[in-house]
Amino acid sequence: MALEVTDWTPSGDLKPVGGVVLVVVDIQGGGLNSPVENDANLMPGRAERNPKAVDLVNSFREKRVPVIFIQEVHKPSLVDIGRELDGSEGPHCIEGEQRTRLHPGLEPRPEEYLIQKRRYSAFFGTELDLLLRGYQARTVILIGGMTDVCIHYTAVDAHQLDYHFRTVTDLVVGSGEELHEAALRAMKYLQRDSLVTSQSVYEWLETVPAVEEVPA
Amino acid sequence: MALEVTDWTPSGDLKPVGGVVLVVVDIQGGGLNSPVENDANLMPGRAERNPKAVDLVNSFREKRVPVIFIQEVHKPSLVDIGRELDGSEGPHCIEGEQRTRLHPGLEPRPEEYLIQKRRYSAFFGTELDLLLRGYQARTVILIGGMTDVCIHYTAVDAHQLDYHFRTVTDLVVGSGEELHEAALRAMKYLQRDSLVTSQSVYEWLETVPAVEEVPA
Amino acid sequence: MALEVTDWTPSGDLKPVGGVVLVVVDIQGGGLNSPVENDANLMPGRAERNPKAVDLVNSFREKRVPVIFIQEVHKPSLVDIGRELDGSEGPHCIEGEQRTRLHPGLEPRPEEYLIQKRRYSAFFGTELDLLLRGYQARTVILIGGMTDVCIHYTAVDAHQLDYHFRTVTDLVVGSGEELHEAALRAMKYLQRDSLVTSQSVYEWLETVPAVEEVPA
Amino acid sequence: MALEVTDWTPSGDLKPVGGVVLVVVDIQGGGLNSPVENDANLMPGRAERNPKAVDLVNSFREKRVPVIFIQEVHKPSLVDIGRELDGSEGPHCIEGEQRTRLHPGLEPRPEEYLIQKRRYSAFFGTELDLLLRGYQARTVILIGGMTDVCIHYTAVDAHQLDYHFRTVTDLVVGSGEELHEAALRAMKYLQRDSLVTSQSVYEWLETVPAVEEVPA
């Protein structure tokens, strides 16, 4: 029984099970360079990831595979902040600030769902599980951030709720390199097929039949 | 904003907030040397931790501070195993096997609660939150294992449910050294006061008034 | 042990415990006469209740006692409708329709929370519990509808989550007279102090100290 | 739109959807005449229902259709009683008392699940949803009591979690005749096919193929 995960190279094969939903977690910033004010210590990678995330979302839309958007938001009063100021983060994702807005191009369309959440896991105090059941999804694909916080804890809840999850390792960014890598290892510990490349997602999308336009 | 946690030395000061409950997570094995069959790759430390855990539990009992015991159990049919075979772990914690039993000395007394769980977080599909509210607890102290799985994910849910959590770093054991340390860092990321020594817990217990025996 | 509730006269005394939050459940219709298209069989009372609900909400705002607004909404695709078409109701609360909008005067202010829900209980798949904890509420006051569906099942969850609940009997309307009354009896079965008049709420509000205006 | 349910005659056709699980809710009493001490005001029917419930459970076992047993239990300390003393019920289902035990013949076999719950809904703070997913159930059949409390609120949660539920009207007993009937109407409001006779369950069971004995 070799429990410890020592190789966390992503797989080139998505291997989804049942229905698929793409979950875009907390890609915010409203087009500003950074979602936080003083980002000197943030793990880099957002500027490269964000346009790639837009491309992936648009590819899902073309094939009519559902996308759900997650946005962390707190009222300026911080009534809903819980214990989120007891750790490394200061006040963040304040409603009304530009940097709290979704990244341009990642705003939901009328038929798509936006879930505004108050905690790290996208399942906590939200309708995410209910919507995934509505879509008859069994596999959730995760992109966004941060790898070691909202992505990791969303993956844990997906796992505990019996979903297969796939984290796109080149489309997630962590709070720092080490915790980013540790979170990937922890996710692979949970599901050995969970780490994938965006390339593998595109290859799977190509196998999804095109949607025929139905005249209205 | 320095998000990344680079120092995870435990604190010598428990600093509990409000009511306290000790949660003993998955200290199983039934007295066997190991809770799993082939443990060559397991992070060592259980043999040293277990008697210390018994001592701590007894000290809580003396001061009438509540203790809740958590035990992971799965039916031999594995109906309840969910996705737990999709990762690093094989079938584990099978009902009826000796190694699934609680460690001797850690069996709940009649007035104490035992929560048998099917997933990693002790809050998932259980009455833990309800019991903590019943005890009017605001701080949960975590001991047991594994640091990077059941302890970490129980801490995350405690955090999201607005509890203060304290992980006793010398009384938790992980799946491996690296993920053990990464999980401690992740917990400190959530709550900067969350890592403590068993020494600090004992020092706090000394400040709890002795319970006077009431004649029946 | 006389279990059955035979008298469900509301109390003239609110008797709140701890912090109070007013929860306005599904007062929708967007100013139309009715929230449903064909309302011949609906229990009457909405036209009288709605302006009274606006007055009560404004009185809470004056005293800075928090108000949370609940709105049932479903996408036109009905992905999120669950089993809600298996019973008496047809498609309802469709996003984008005028009758799905909140009643005029009951739209949340920027500092107030709006919870859009997909099921009957306002706690199911929502952040309501989390927000009530944030407000340090122990008592929830319920107005809106329908008595025997969303009000009843929200009250049940509040009860099970250890809140004291108060249903304002002259500000709730049911699907029909008999089920309206049966639901009031069921709520009184759960908490004997749970049925109150709007008069009792106003009398309590008078005891809440006025908020002094703080210069900005 | 005729919302109100005026006819609650049970159906003679079970019409299950997908996998089926029988959920036996709170049939307790340990063989005593009554599960409560002073039962003068209790709706009668338990003495007739209980042996019929045993027969039905045994018929499910013969066809290997899963049965899950629910038992309400509270510690003598009442730490876990929540708000359940604020209404019509006094202290009830105390651990260790004979009347808290399951009715003879309704004790789970080793391969069957027993869920001990602290609140009225069998889903609240329990693993029921997780187990139903494990059994791949989409339809739950409810028997036991009380119709207007634990049965009703379990049905509501089943409904909100997208299960089809069937309440066997001749195998449930309420707190009183009127609330028993009102709860049946409320359940039919939720799912128009939800009220069935035990006869219809037996007729469906006959269509389930016999299990061939596999030599060990």
TrEMBL record, chains A, B, C, D:
GO terms for molecular function: hydrolase activity. It holds the Pfam family Isochorismatase. InterPro entries: Isochorismatase-like_dom, Isochorismatase-like_hydrls, Isochorismatase-like_sf. Residues 21-189 form the Isochorismatase-like domain. The keyword Hydrolase applies. Keywords: Hydrolase. PANTHER family: ISOCHORISMATASE-LIKE DOMAIN-CONTAINING PROTEIN, PEROXYUREIDOACRYLATE/UREIDOACRYLATE AMIDOHYDROLASE-RELATED. This is Cysteine hydrolase. It comes from Kineosporia corallincola. The lineage of its organism: Bacteria, Bacillati, Actinomycetota, Actinomycetes, Kineosporiales.
